[in-house]
């Protein structure tokens, strides 16, 4: 087990958003600034930094714009603390598929999609008639375009 103490810092974030990062933060050690606080919470967080402290944030840019963020990160590390920014899981873009094409029709639908003589709208219409599943052209591209 580690003796690290986790604290959180965010700019224009909610307490809930920071807690969703999945860390158990020390009591009273969630620092949130907004445009109206003039970075007072940043100064309070910096005063808390010492060896064994891990500062967790959603994005490094919460510390400031561009070079200011790197300067603040170096100040935190100079105090002996570490900065941790969890990797964000990228979500698939585009609308969710409204229905699933039955397994026995997937190869047929892929062949329709690959047929250059048909427009994407014609493909969507034929799939709807055959399976009852309505897909947009974007959903077709998501399902069949990325081979």
Report what the structure shows:
This protein folds into two domains: 5-84, Rossmann fold, CATH 3.40.50.1390; 103-145. The protein has six helices and four strands. The mean pLDDT is 85. Strands 2-1-3-4 form a four-stranded parallel β-sheet. 17% of the residues are buried. Helix 1 links the parallel strand 1 (5-11) and strand 2 (30-33). It is α/β, with parallel strands linked by helices.
Any descriptors?
147 residues, alpha/beta, Rossmann fold, 2 domains, 4-stranded parallel beta sheet, 6 helices, elongated
SSE topology sketch:
Blueprint: E1 5-11, H1 15-19, E2 30-33, H2 40-48, E3 53-56, H3 67-78, E4 82-84, H4 106-114, H5 120-131, H6 137-145
Parallel strand pairs: 1-2, 1-3, 3-4
Low-pLDDT stretches are none
The CATH class assignment of the largest domain is Alpha Beta
Name the structural class.
Answer: alpha/beta
Reported CATH architecture of the largest domain:
3-Layer(aba) Sandwich
Total helical elements? 6
Average the pLDDT over all residues and give the rounded result: 85
Which bin fits the share of residues in helices? 25-40%
Tell me what portion of residues adopts beta-strand conformation: 5-15%
Q: What Rg, in angstroms, do the CA atoms define?
A: 25 Å
Order of helices and strands: EHEHEHEHHH
Under CATH, the homologous superfamily of the largest domain reads Resolvase, N-terminal catalytic domain
- Count of the separate structural domains: 2
Q: How is the quaternary structure best described? A: single chain
Number of strands: 4
Strand order of the largest sheet: 2-1-3-4
Distance between termini?
45 Å
Largest sheet: 4 strands, parallel
CATH topology term of the largest domain: Rossmann fold
